[in-house]
Amino acid sequence: MVRYFCCFFLGFFILSLLLLTKCIGQNKPGWKIHQPSLRTKWADDVRQNSSIDEYPRPQMRREKWQNLNGIWNYAITDRNSNMPSHFKGEILVPYPIESALSGVKRQLLPTQVLWYKRRFFISNDYNQRVILHFGAVDWQASVFVNGKDVGSHTGGYTAFSCDITEALEKDSNELIVKVFDPTDQGIGPHGKQALNPTNIYYTASSGIWQTVWIEKVGINHIKSLRINPDINNSAVNVVVLGSSVDCLVEVTAKQGKKVVANVEGKVNQNIVLPIRNVKLWSPETPFLYDLEVKLKKRDSIVDNIESYFGMRNVTIQKDVDGFERIFLNNKPYYNLGALDQGFWPEGLYTAPTDKALAFDIALIKAMGFNTIRKHIKVEPARWYFHADKIGILVWQDFVNPNQGLPDGSRNEFEKQVKETIDQLYNYPCITTWVVFNEKWGQYDQKRITEWVKKYDFSRLVNGHSGELLYVNDKLRSPSPNAYEGSDMTDVHSYLYPRMPPYLTGKVRVLGEYGGAGAAVQGHLWDDLAKGWGYDSINNLKSLRNKYSAMVDSLVVLKKEGLSASIYTQPFDVESEQNGLITYDRKIVKIPFDTIQAINKRLVIQDNNNWIGKVKLSLTTAREDERSYEELLTEYKKGRRDSFFLRSLSILAQLNGNKIDAKELSDEYLRLVKNPLDQSNLKFIIKFTKSTDDIGFWILYNNMLSVNHVLGKDQAEAILTGIIENRHVTPFVSNNNVPKWDDILQTVKRKYGKLGEETVLQAQVLYAVDHKDWNLFKTCAPRWFDEYGSNRFWVGNDLLNNIAWSAFEHSLDRDVLETALKMSKKTLQIDQPALRIDTYANILYKLGRIKDAIMWEEKAVESKKGADDEAIYIEILNKMKNGKATWN
C-alpha cells in the first residue's frame, strides 16, 4: 500500500509538472510596450487584441468590414534577400517598428527590408470582390496573399487598396507585406523623419502605421466620392465614382433623421442636391449633414455607403477697410493657428488610440485657436473626421520632397500631391493647401501651385510658406519670386511676429512664429539634451510673458491687414521643447485660463464645450524651479534616489562642474537596475569620456545588447572613439612619427579586436592626412577588409574622401586598388554624382578607360540641368581625350 501511494503521488507530481509546463508555454508573454522615455495616458489603453478598432474611413463607411490590426509576425532582412522562411518576432500593427507601441522599437536601415506576416479568415462569396485596404505604409510596400503578388504602392502618407479575390483560398489565408523605407536617404517625401533625429527632425516611422482592413463589395461598387458644397447657390455637388458606368446612383442628404434632399443621377457625373435653409459649417458651429449613397442596377441596390459633408466656402475678398482677407462663408475670418507636427512619444506617427487623436484637436481648440497647420505630415482619415466634428480650420501641408532632390524625388513628390488632394478632398475642415515649406526641396513653385489651384478650385493655396525666413530679425532666405501663383504672401519670423509683404490680390499671413523653448523636468523626451527652441531655454514665467507680447504684436498687425498667424507650436516633440504643452500631453506650461484669455485678444470663439473635456487632463507646470546649488545641498545632506541623482548629474554637466558630474553620474550608474535600456544608454554615452569611467565597461562588456538598442555598430563607434582619445591621440598630436607597432600591441592587449580596429583606423586616417602612402599600403587594406567595409558608422562620405585623396595624391597601383574598393563600397546603396565621379576617376587612373568613361557618363547624366553640370562634362571630355583628370 505504501509503495502504491508513493507511485501514485510520484506519477501525480510528474503529470502536474507536465501540465504546468504546458500551461506556461501556452501563456508565455507576447507583445508588450517597450518602455518609452515618455508616454501619454492613452498608452495604457493599447491592447494586443484591440489596438485601434474604429472604422478607418469615415467619409465612405460600409457596415461590414474586418479589422486586421493586432499582432503580426515580422522579420528584417537585407534589402536584396528573398522572402524569409521564418518570422520570429511579433509586432503590433499599426504602430511603426521604431515605436514603443509596436513592441519592437527598432530602427529600420536603408540597407534592410521589413516583412510582415499574418493569417486571416474570410469566405469568398459568389459575385463579390474582396478588397484589402492599407491606411498608410511608409514607404514602399509589396503585398502577397497566399504567395501571390496582389499589388504594391510607393508613398508613405496615402492609402491604397488591393483586390485580393483571385488569390484567396478557402477560409484561411496568408498575408505578407514587404516594406522598404530608406527615410531621409531615399527619393520619397519623408517629412520630419530622420535616421539620425536631432533638433527639428524626429524619429522615423517605418512600415505599417495606419489601419489595415478588409471589405467585401459587389462586382459593381462605389470607389470614391467628390463633394463640393456651394453655399452661394444653396446646393451641394456630388460625383460618385464607380467600378462600372452601367449603374445609377441615389444620393440623399440628411439633417439628423430628416431628409433634406434626395436626387438620382448617373455614375461619374455631377449630381446637384439643393439644400434649403442651409446650416453653415464653421469652427463656431461645426454642423455636418449626413450623406447616403446607393448604387443601383436594374432597380436593385448593389452597394450602399454612408458619408457626410459640411456647407462652407473659403475665399479671398476685401474687407470694409480695403484689406485682402481670408473669408470663411463670405465673412472675414482671422486664422489663429498652431503648427501641429502629429508625433507621439510612444507611437511616433501613430496616435496610441482614436481618443488620443481627437484629444489633440480638442485641446488646441480649447486653448483658443481656430486653425491647425498640419505640418508636413498627412494624418489618418479619422483625424480629419475629428477636426470636422470638433470644428477647426486646417492648413494641410504637402509632405516635402527629399531636400537634396535626388533623381526621381520630383516625380514622387508630385504623385503624392495628387494622391493627397484626392484622399482629403471632401473634408470641410481643410481650407488651405501648403505646397512648399521654406526651402525644403522647393522647385517649380509657380507651376505646381497653379496646378494645385486648378485641380482643387475650392480651397486657398499657399505656394510657399516661409520663403522669407527671419530668425532674430535676420533674413535667411530672400527670393525675388517667392509668391508666384500663390494666394498668399507668407513669412516665417522667429521669435516675434512681423508683417509679410503686400502684393495685390493676395492675403498676408504669418506662416510660423514663436518657437520659444521652456523645459519641464520629468516630462522630457531626452533629459540629456539641452532642448531646442528658437531662443535659449526660458523659465516658464518668461515663456508666458513672451507669448503674451507676441499676441499683442499680432493684434496690431491684424489691424494693418494680417489675415492669419501660426504659432510654433502646441506640443513639445522629442528634442524640441518649444511647445505650450509637454510631449506627453500632461503639463501645460502657461496656465490654461491664461492662454485662453491671451488668445481672445485676437479671436473670440465659443469653445467652452471643449475646455471641460481637456482641462482635467492637464496640470499646470511650476514656475519656481530650484537652483542647482539648492539641489546640490540636498545631495550633500544624503538624498540618493536614482531620479534625483540622474537629474543632478545632468544639471552639474550643464553648469560646467565636471568633478561633480562624474561623481554624481558614477553614483547613479551604480544604483541603476537596467543600464541597457535606451534612456540609460544615452546617459552612459553622455557621461562616458574615458576608459576609466564606469560607463565604458558597461558598453564594452555588453556590445551586442547595446547595438540591439541603439543600432548596428553603435557600441563600437562610441568605444573606438574613447579608446583612440585615450591611447592613440596623445602619440600622434605632436610632430614625432608615431610608433604604431608599440601602440597596436598596447591597445590590442587591453581591448582585443576592438583595440586593433581602433589603431588600424587611426593609422589610415593619419596616412591620408600626412600623405604617407607607404603606411597606407600596410594598414588600409587590412582595416577596410576586416572592419571598414562592414561598419555601418564608417560612412560613405568618409570612404569617399579617403578614396579621393588617394586618387589625387598617389600613383601607386596598390594604393589606388584599395581606394577603388572603398569607392565601390560607397555606391552599393545609392549613387550620387560626387561618389560616381570618384569611382570613375580612380578607374581612369588605373587605366580602365572604357569603364571610367561609362561611369563618368552616369555622373554627367545625374547632374543634368544642375549648376555644376559643366564640371563633370569637363572631366568626361578629358577622359575621352586621354588627358589627366588629377592635375
TrEMBL record:
Record's keyword terms, sorted: Glycosidase, Hydrolase
Keyword Hydrolase attributed: yes
UniProt keyword annotation of Lyase present: no
Domain Glycosyl hydrolases family 2 sugar binding: 93-183
Domain Glycoside hydrolase family 2 immunoglobulin-like beta-sandwich: 221-312
GO biological process, one term: carbohydrate metabolic process
Highest taxon of source: Bacteria
InterPro entries according to UniProt: Beta-gal/glucu_dom_sf, Galactose-bd-like_sf, GH, GH2_Domain-Containing, Glyco_hydro_2_cat, Glyco_hydro_2_N, Ig-like_fold, Ig-like_GH2
Domain Glycoside hydrolase family 2 catalytic intervals: 355-475
Gene Ontology MF terms: hydrolase activity, hydrolyzing O-glycosyl compounds
Family: Belongs to the glycosyl hydrolase 2 family.
Name of the protein in its database record: Glycoside hydrolase family 2
